[in-house]
Amino acid sequence: MLSWMLKRSKIFMVLFLLCLIVGIYTFISLPQRELPEFSVNAGTITTIYPGATVQAVERDITNPIEEKLSSIDGIDEYSSSSAAGVSSIILTVEDGQDKNEVFSNVRQAVSDAASTFPDSVTEPNVTIISGGTAISSYTLTSDNRNELSDLKDEMARWKEEIESIPGVSMVQIKGVTDEQITINLDSEKLSEYGIQFPTILTSINEEFSPTPLGKKEQDGQIVQLAIDSYGQIEELKKLICGHFHRW
Predict the structure, then answer these.
(1) Which of the chain's termini has less CB crowding within 10 Å, N or C?
(2) CA pair distance 170, 129, nearest whole angstrom
(3) How far apart are CA 69 and CA 91, in angstroms?
(4) Closest CA to 110 of 73, 142, 76, 68
(5) Distances (CA, A) of 65 to 53, 91, 241
(6) Within 10 Å of residue 181's Cβ, how many Cβ atoms?
(7) Do 57 and 86 form a contact (C-beta atoms < 8 A)?
(8) What does the buried/exposed string (b/e) look like for 5-22 if buried means 16 or more CB atoms within 10 Å of the residue's CB?
(9) What percent of the chain has pLDDT over 90?
(10) Does residue 207 surpass a pLDDT of 80?
(11) Which segment of 135-139, 153-157, 226-230 scores lowest on mean pLDDT?
């Protein structure tokens, strides 16, 4: 066998070079990506229950949703996490199932469960995890949480610039919470002055989010009409919510 190959060494050399050339060409022409595309048949259900304890979130939000999910065909598995004020459920769809149809049933089931939620619960958010594009993650850390909050506007600007790049479909910013203001009311004072809580809430909303008055043409320009309103938290102390008269 060896002597037969040696006698035909030129033929084998040509075949070897041909295979080498084909291999190099195939390697170069194959698409290469640092983070290849992948498909994920998963989704999340997030529900916010402001001010609720872990036990209340699990009892009033997580458990009712899980009961509805257990009757849906096509769900492979799901896991839940109940924390103070928020319920989070991650679910995966069985291979071979129509993901869109399954999540359509999930949304309907969650909507049915939401009809039993307490009034203060926000509308559940059902999101399909998309794995069709590569994912790149960047993390900002700081010893002072307030420093990260101060960068919120800058992060929003980065988000807009990155999303403007061709090929980028979505950018998400996570971990930076929106600022919240807590207003404590004196129930005795409210009773004394005859002011109801809805009256105070309406006054705050009207002052910080006034209703637009429309537009007007002036000197060849369109001018937006608006009422002067408060824009700083400190100005809440000046807000008039009602009038009290002593007789």
Answers:
(1) C
(2) 12
(3) 9
(4) 68
(5) 17, 12, 40
(6) 7
(7) yes
(8) eeeeeeeeeeeeeeeeee
(9) 12
(10) no
(11) 226-230
Buried b (16+ CB within 10 A) or exposed e, 30-66: eeeeeeeeeeebbbebebbbeebeeeebbebbbebbb
Give the Å distances, CA to CA, from 6 to 12, 15, 16, 17, 217: 9, 14, 14, 16, 96
**Residue-wise pLDDT tens digits, 149-162:** 778 888 889 888 98
Whether the predicted pLDDT of 84 surpasses 70: yes
Distance of alpha carbon 73 from alpha carbon 105, whole angstroms:
9
Residue 118: exposed, middle, or buried by beta-carbon count in 10 A (0-12, 13-18, 19+)?
exposed
- d(Cα 153, Cα 93) in Å, to the nearest integer? 37
Give the amino acid at 221: Q
Which percentage of the chain shows pLDDT scores above 70?
Answer: 72
- Count other Cβ atoms within 10 Å, centred on residue 110: 20
Does the global pTM surpass 0.90? Answer: no
Measured CA distances, 82 to 42, 59, 89, 90, 108 (Å)? 19, 9, 9, 12, 21
Query: Could you tell me how many residues make up the chain?
Result: 247
- Is the CB of residue 45 less than 8 Å from the CB of residue 65? yes
CB neighbourhood size of 131 (10 A): 13
